[in-house]
Each structure stands twice: as structure tokens, then as C-alpha cells.
Amino acid sequence: MADEGAMAEDGPVDGQDVDDEEIDAADASPQVELAYGVPVTRSGGHIVLHATPAQLVETAEALAADGFDQLIDLCGVDYLTHPGRVDLADTVVGQRFEVVVALINHERRERVRIRVQVPDDEPVVPTLFDVWPGAEVLEREAYDMFGITFADHPDMTRILMPEDWVGHPLRKDYAVGQIPVQFKGAPTTR
Amino acid sequence: MSLDHDQTTDARVRERGDSAVLRMSESALAQLGVIDAPAGVAHDLAEDETMFINMGPSHPSTHGVLRLMLELRGEMVVRSKPVIGYLHTGMEKQGEQLSYLQGTTNVTRMDYASPLFNELAFSMAVEELLGLEVPPRATWIRMLLTELNRMSSHLLFMATNGMDLGAVSMMIFGWREREEVLRFFEKVSGLRMNHNFIRPGGVAADLPDGWRDDVLRLLELIPPRLDEYDTLMTGQPIWQERLQGVGVLNTAEALALGVTGPLLRSTGYAWDLRRDMPYLAYDKVEFDVVVGTYGDSFDRYAIRLNEIRESMRIVAQILDQMPKGDYRVQDKKVTPPPRARIDESMEALIHHFKIFTEGFKVPEGEVYAAVESPRGELGCYIVSDGSAHPYRLRIRPPSLINLQCLPYLMQNGLIADAVANISSVDPIMGEVDR
Q1: Residue A184 lies in a domain
Q2: Over the range B182-215, which residues count as b (16 or more CB within 10 Å of their CB) and which as e?
């Protein structure tokens, strides 16, 4: 437990035993461990892959071909006010938004997370709908809550908030309590 | 403010306003390509003409506020689209404002039919970040309560499923048995629902005196009632006619759509986190994973009915194996001092006060923990920035993702079966919208 925690914080450790067969040693620089073509770290016993938006679909397809048969979860995170991140791979530059995709391999009973860094000025990520159609509502939710757009998604609309809503509620600069309470000062008939 | 009625006789004109709900329906209609369709119901439908109808959001069989856009050809559903969001209350945003100690009170309100699973997933995620080892008794109490909760949740399904399909006495029966389980929860936690009983570090209190007798009573009471259900529904031709072959889902579709829980198992795919990726102490109890064959509504009904029986099997084993010891971890950082210490020690009082006002800090990192809830995989993803509040709290809602298969279940089915399909997905709208 303590070991894993230390690994997750320090990123990949030099000379660490690599037990994953998928890791492509030829491409790896000495510092950064790669799996499925993208940098990899470990967190709480799960493998965490750090893909760029451009690499996402390719990585997802490789994972799907490798037996990751279900997309379990997809959600956004806004790192705007986070004091400093230490759990990224060394070569990965942290951006404001992150899309976290959780996958499961039923046969090997294994979980993988893909963390995609999404820049603030261009929050666009390709959709995973074509790989796992189950991403549909989850991507809509991430769009609704964070304003991250998923390119080529069949129906990129709001899902939880009303269609005419302004802003994306789970962003860190979207303050709690900024919506006026509608019951106050409502005109009455008396 | 004047209370003189005579002064204000003119009623205020009600403005239509741009109601969020109206806007939503317009957009959903546009997505179905019906924006240029004639208003009202068309009387003379041509052979290839379809009709759009709206079901819900306040429909008795939509389990809350689920709205469905249905495209019909005669009695047949061609396409359908669930429209959600009516119960959205920003619980994930709220979770970022509350400390880890308060977090369980928030998540427990998401899936209100199985609140203990939400608390469990949240607590497991926080404990993993903290690196806490929960004492054995706490683990087994958690197992006991969540298995009983699985029973009460499935009994609720039995009730609503029966009600939706016209077996009204089933509704009364299901609620009656569920109430027996809730009565036990009330004795343990003080509340029938939204218990806030499973907390990071263990459980809130030890089991009350006489809990064993109460559980034994439940184990005696419920099996004959389940046999009654069998007589009333399982073996009954009307029930079978109504459910068999309705809303068929196959394994490939279920996997592609991310469907988990009884829906996935109904397709014959044996996947249960309790057996396949054991958490708590599920590797120390024996139980069977119930699977279906046809993936239809009847299988889903039968799976849930038999999962009640399996849960009772597990509960009986828990009674035998329940260890003695502490019900929460004795880590001063997470656990407040016992009540008696507060009276005699100033430090204990300060410590108690600090824990409940500031909460405890959780090391930086991100973690995903998952449990098998009655509806499928319930996950909790937490990003911590090292403070006493989660930086990001994400609950993976099985109901929302399972709801995606509804258009597949309904397609080319009868409109009369729509209710059977919604019911067999067993969505809890509080969890869908959060």
C-alpha cells in the first residue's frame, strides 16, 4: 500500500521491474515507462495511462483489442485551483481540464484509467462513442458539467442542466451560490 | 404586508416564461427530427408514417421523473430516447464543499433505494487514499448491512415491477417485506433511509443489542414470502406472458453500452464484482452469481428474486463468522475520541471539536473504488488535493449508464411493453441525475 502510494506520487521509478508485457521498451526513454504507446503511472493498484487528445482514440482501440471490453466511467476534472499535481508522468504537462476514462478487463480482472489533459483554450477531445457506445451519456455529462466538447459525438447537447443554461457547473470558477434563489422576492398576488 | 383581501382582487397574470422544462422538450423533439411535424396527434397515419409521443416526466411508472420520447409506428416503438435531468441537484458539486466526514451524508442521498452502497463506495475510496485498514468487525458489519440493503432494494424492485405490470397486491407485499428490513436499519442506524452509517474508517456505531435475533427473524420471515412471490408471479401464465421475450438485450450490446449488474447478468454473462474482484470479505463467504439465459425482462425479474435468496445465504454466513472487536479504526486522525473521554480530557474535547469542524486531511492523489450495488457497478472517483475536502467527487452511477440500453430494449417492441422495460432496468432517478 505504502509502496504504491509512493510510486503514484513520484511517477515512474527508474529501473523499476516492468511486468506488463504490453510495454514497448523500444520507444521508451530511460525515465518514462510506456504502455499502449503512452506514458504510464500506477495509482492504487490500477494502471493509469496518460494520453493526449490526439492519441486517445488510438490508445482506446488498442485497449479494446487487448480485452478491455467495457467502458466503466468517463468524467471530467477541472484542475484550475489545484495547488500542484505530482501524479502525472514526467513527460506529461498538466492542463486545466482532464478527462478520466475508466476501463475494465473482465478476463484479466484488471482496471485501467486513461487521463487525458485538455487545454483550457481548446477543450476538445475526440469521442469514444465509436469504440464503446456506452460513452454517449457520459460524454454528454462531461460536456454539460465542464464544457469539454467531444468531437464527432452524435448528440453533443446538455444532459442534466436545462438547454438554455449558461456556464458549466462543475468548473472551479463556477461559484456555489451564484444562482439567485428563486423563492426570494417573488411577486405575490397579495 | 397587508392581509386585506379586498385590496388585491386583480390576479397577477401568469407568465409563461422560458421554462427550462419546455426548452428541453423542444430540443429533444428537434433531435428526433420532428420539429416540422404537425402539432397534435395525426389521425390518418399513412403506412410508413410515425407518431411521436411523450411519456413522463411525471408518469406513475417512470420511477421518479424520467421522460421518454417515443417514436411510434402504430403500436410499435421505432425509436425512443430517455430525457433526464429533472432531479439534478448538483450533488457532485456539493461533494466538493463538504468535508470527507460529511461526504457520506451527501452520497447516501444519490441512490436512495440502496444508500449504504453509496456510503460504502465513498468510504472505500477515502480509505484507500488514507491507506487505512478497516478492522474486521467493521468490514463484516458493512457486509451484513449492504447485503440486507441489497435485499431491501430488490424487494422494492419486486414491488414496483409488480405495480407497473398491474400486480397491485405485489406492490403491497414488496413494500411490506422491505419495511421489515428497513426496521432493522432503523434500529441499527436510527434512520430508515440515508443512514450515514458507513463512514471512512469503519461504521458509525456497533450493532445494537439483539441484532442477531432481529436478523434471524428476517431470515425466517422472508423465504416463505419469496415463495409466495413465486406462486403469485413467477409461475403464473399472465406474468410470464407479460415479461418473457420482452426487452431482449444480448451480451455484446450490454458490454458495449457499459451496462452492469442484473442487466448484464440477465444476458448470461456472469460478472459480479463481489465474486470477480472481491472487496470487503466476499472471498470468505459462499454464494452463487445468478445469471439469466435470454436477457429479457423475465430473466431480470428472476435474477433479482434469486439474488434476494443469495443475499440471505450470505447474511446467514455473516451471522456465523461475525468477528468481535472494534467497529472503527483506532486512528486518531480519522476517529473522534469516545464520548466518555470527552468528559475527562480537555485534549479529547479539542480533538473531537477539530475533527467535526475542520475534518481530517486526506493525502493528495486520485483513486477509484467500486462496489457491486443492486443496480450494477457503483464507483467512486475522488481527486484529493491534500485538504479536508475532496477536490473532485465523482460517483459512477449504474442507473444512468444502464438507462442507455432502454432504446435498445424498446426498439420494435409494443408501446404496452415500454413500462415493463423501464421497470426491469430499475433506474433510481436520484442517482441518474444526482
Answers
A1: no
A2: bebbeebbeebbbbbbbbbbbbbebbeeebeebb
Q: Worst-scoring range by mean pLDDT, A1-15, B233-247, B248-262? A: A1-15
Contacts of A189 in chain B (CB under 8 A): 8, 11-12
pTM, 2 dp: 0.83
User: What is the pLDDT, as a whole number, of residue B374?
Assistant: 92
Question: How many angstroms separate the most distant Cα atoms in chain B?
Answer: 84
Chain A hits for B370, Cβ within 8 Å: 72
Say if residue A80 is exposed, middle or buried (CB neighbours under 10 Å; 0-12, 13-18, 19+): exposed
Q: Do B93 and A159 touch (CB under 8 A)?
A: no
Could you tell me what percent of chain B has a pLDDT over 70?
88
Give the CATH number of the domain where residue A90 resides. Answer: 3.30.460.80
Q: Which helix (H) or strand (E) holds A143?
A: helix A135-146
The neighbour count for residue B325, using CB atoms within 10 Å, is 11
Asked, for residue A14, whether it belongs to a domain, the answer is yes
* ipTM at complex level: 0.79
Q: Which domain holds residue A98?
A: 2-151
pLDDT band of residue A47 (cuts 50, 70, 90) is confident
State residue A165's pLDDT score: 83
| Banded model confidence at residue B87, pLDDT cuts 50, 70, 90 | confident
**For B66, which DSSP code?**
-
- Check residue A41 and give its pLDDT: 83
pLDDT in tens, A121-168: 888 999 988 888 888 899 999 999 999 999 888 888 888 888 888 888
| Inter-chain CB proximity B2 and A190 less than 8 Å | yes
The reply to whether residue B256 touches residue A132, judged by beta carbons under 8 angstroms, is yes
Per the CB < 8 A criterion, the answer to whether B128 and A2 are in contact is no
Flag whether A20 is in a domain. yes
Domains along chain B? Answer: 91-433 (1.10.645.10)
Within an 8 Å CB–CB cutoff, is residue A82 touching chain B? yes
Of B384, B85, B421, residue with least CA distance to A169: B85
Is B88's CB within 8 Å of A160's CB? Answer: yes
- Label residue A46 by pLDDT band (50, 70, 90): confident
| CA angle at B194 for the pair B188 and B196, rounded to the nearest 5° | 65
At residue A122, the pLDDT reads: 87
Cβ <8 Å between B401 and A137: yes
Cα–Cα distance for residue pair B176/B180, rounded to 1 Å: 7
Residue range A34-52: average pLDDT?
A: 82
- Distances in Å between the Cα of A81 and the Cα atoms of A95, A133, B214, B231, B312 are 12, 32, 49, 59, 47
- Nearest residue in B to A6, CA atom: B365
A77 interfacial to chain B (CB closer than 8 Å) = yes
Pairing of strands A124-126, A149-151: parallel
Is A157 within a domain?
no
Inter-chain touch A137–B381, beta carbons under 8 Å = no
Is the Cα dihedral B372, A170, B431, B422 positive or negative? Answer: negative
